[in-house]
Amino acid sequence: MQIAANQLANHLQRGLKSLYTLHGDEPLLVQEALDAIRASARLQGYTERTSHTVAGAHFDWSEVLAAGGSLSLFADKQIVEIRIPSGKPGKDGSAALQQLAQAAQGNDSTLTLVMLPRLDKPTKSAAWFAALESFGITLQVEPVERQALPQWIAQRLAAQGQRVAAGDEGLRTLQFFADRVEGNLLAAHQEIQKLGLLFPVTPGSEGGVLRFEQVESAVLNVARYDVFKLSEAVLAGQALRVQRMLDGLQAEGEAEVLVHYTLSEDIRALKRVKDAMNAGKPLPMALRDQRIWGPRERLFERVLPKLSDAVLTELLHAAHVVDGIVKGLKQPDWPSTGWQALHRLALHVCGLCAAPSAQRRGERTAPGG
Predict the structure, then answer these.
(1) What pTM was estimated for this model as a whole?
(2) Which CATH number is associated with domain 2-140?
(3) Is there a common fold for 2-140 and 227-361?
């Protein structure tokens, strides 16, 4: 059975199961979920814990299977933790996990915890994962997206007795905070804890209200960006965020060619979907054929009506020009460095995605012009 992360506390209050599978790429939230399960287990007498990390194709699963069926002389209940960093247990691991899942039924002496990274759809359809889900509880730990980050910060502040000011100042404070910690939830958690130490709630602290100046002076810039989130920001027309992300990626040493590939692949995908629509294919089918789904699917649906065939052709040419600049070629009327050219291309696409639908009339605007 699958439950959402925010349902875990209520679930544990109703009783502990013998098998839990957690999958996701957000270390803080995975760790907090694990801590909650372990705390509940300790209250119920699970005093011994063993941990196994699956590494390499020749991992010995017999040790894991043996651990699930043995108890020490000093404990009558135990926790067996299995970490699979690759998310691929292999043939032997698949059989072992299915055996463990079936053995968990009615086993009140062993609590099995399986930790996995974010899984793709084919992996979730595998027999071993289906067994884990059928005989136990699976918990998909979703990342906190940028638009939800201010509310997440506000909830964490409230948990330690703090809050931002009401009205516009509070909104500005939360947005500033989110900009400083985007993509780095563990550091965000640490910055929130730091505010609790710097400005403790006391009778004279206005009920724990944090002013913008206090947050601005205390919260470090610990944001971490990836090129996939850059793609979403460009298609969403978020110019300031795109600028911050490009600066951050450059400062972190991200490869220019990878950033260019991400931007140009979006442009190519937009052009392919547009061409398919012009040929009579319905938009949902055209998006599916190009393997565009989730947040990108919604962004494509919003952006495509704004972009004419002429504009998309022009963007393809601009992406080709920037490809040459990134590889060391010089181009007239373009910046000389790769990062400057990437900024110009990304912000131009961003502007077109944010603009009113005038582009559907075929208006042409040179990149950066």
Answers:
(1) 0.74
(2) 3.40.50.300
(3) no
